[in-house]
Amino acid sequence: MRIVIILLFTIALLASCKNDLNLNAPYKDIPNVYAVLCPQNNVNVIRINKTFLTTTNAYSIAKNQDTVNYAPGELSITLNRFVNGTQVNAGVGQTVTFKDSVVQTSQGAYSTTQRVYVTYEKLSTNGVYILTIKNNVTQKVFTAQTNAIDSIQPTSVQPWAAPYYPAPQMAYDPNDPSYPFLNYYSSTNPARPYGLAIYRNESSSVKADLYQVTMRYYFWDSLTGNTKISRSADFNIGNFYAKDLPLYQNYFSARFTNQQIANALGTACQAQNLNNTNVLGRWIYKGQIIVNTCTQNYIDYLAYSAPSFNINQQKPIYSNFDNQDALGIFSVVSRFSIYKSVDYAFASSFSSQYPTCQFKFVSYSVGNGFQPSYCP
Q: How far apart are CA 70 and CA 49, in angstroms?
């Protein structure tokens, strides 16, 4: 008999556990859970699927929604918050209940009809959360706990860190986060490195173990017929681990060049299959700095879920549920983002270097207006 465990969660984002699950034991109810919650989200979704045994084609059976989904009302899901060991029964982050819902996913190996569990209640950034999943048919209860964490604060992001920001430094204005302008370009030294720093100043008592930093650039596709389409492309600055920080240092710093940004934007445009048909030009008009944070249990989950390149392809299956009665992950992650205006010189730099020039990014100068791109 072939035993097939369907893992139907998608790694989104971001204490090693011993995994001694006996997969040759008689079949029993083992939920497969992906519960990565974020206090900054207006809606939080948990995905739970069934495992199953089969002696036939697993992929054919996985297309059957009744095989991989629990029935409506079969599961009850609650989230309880504790502070200093005492359950919080009022205010933000009290007992949260998740409701059944059905979503349609993209075509793939499994059924496109997936049952998920949704809440619109606000989550807290402090305390300990305990997730309880109860099977109302078997009366079996599955539990897991994790720490809530806060996002970094607005003053954490320093886009003008060493080796010094080229634009005039402007006073920080919490009512206008667009200043200072993003500008990672020097006409006299196009290859110079630039710096960005992220400070660890979360308000919660538990700080993150991983900081994932991304710059997202928004640009217009200016089309014939006076039509504009807004698009975006990401420059992933990297992952920063708290364990790697030097002693007594509470910030991370990254260094990068204008060409590295151009390479990332060009790759993103190619992945979006952007072409130049009927496009007059593309212009970057806004930047966003995004910092996603998580704790060690989610880092472990990412490591367990990563593809194996060893000769031995068998890997332990991750679970941070009590007694490993359920498979998967329960974790809280946080997200911070801030928008910045983009300096004209910086935006114009992508019109004259490869690979962004091939996607018709334009330049701008006072008196001459927008000028077409040219690849050197």
A: 7
Based on the fold, state whether residues 265 and 312 are members of the same structural domain. Answer: no
pLDDT of residue 167: 42
Tokens of 234: 């990401």
pLDDT of residue 5: 36
Per this entry, what is the length of the chain? 376
Q: Which residue has the tokens 């997202």?
A: 216
Is 12 inside a domain boundary?
yes
Tell me: do 141 and 108 sit in the same domain.
Answer: yes
Cα-based distances in Å from 256 to 95, 113, 252 = 44, 43, 14
| pLDDT of the residue at 54 | 57
Instruction: Find how far residue 15's CA is from the centre of its chain.
Output: 21
259, part of any domain:
yes
Report in angstroms the alpha-carbon separations of 112 from 105, 171, 374: 5, 51, 44
Q: CA–CA separation, 98 vs 79, rounded Å?
A: 8
How many domains are contained in the chain? 2
Residues 265 and 366 in one domain: yes
Domain for residue 202, yes or no?
yes
Q: 219: domain range? A: 154-293+343-371
CA atoms within 13 A on the CB side of 103: 11
Amino acid at 170: M
Q: What is the pTM of this model?
A: 0.82
pLDDT digits (tens, 9 = 90+) for 213-227: 999 999 999 988 888
Cα–Cα dist 108/354, whole Å = 35
Strand partners, 227: 223
Please tell me the distance from the alpha carbon of residue 358 to that of residue 352, in angstroms, as a whole number. 9
The residues of the chain scoring below 50 in pLDDT are 1-25, 164-173
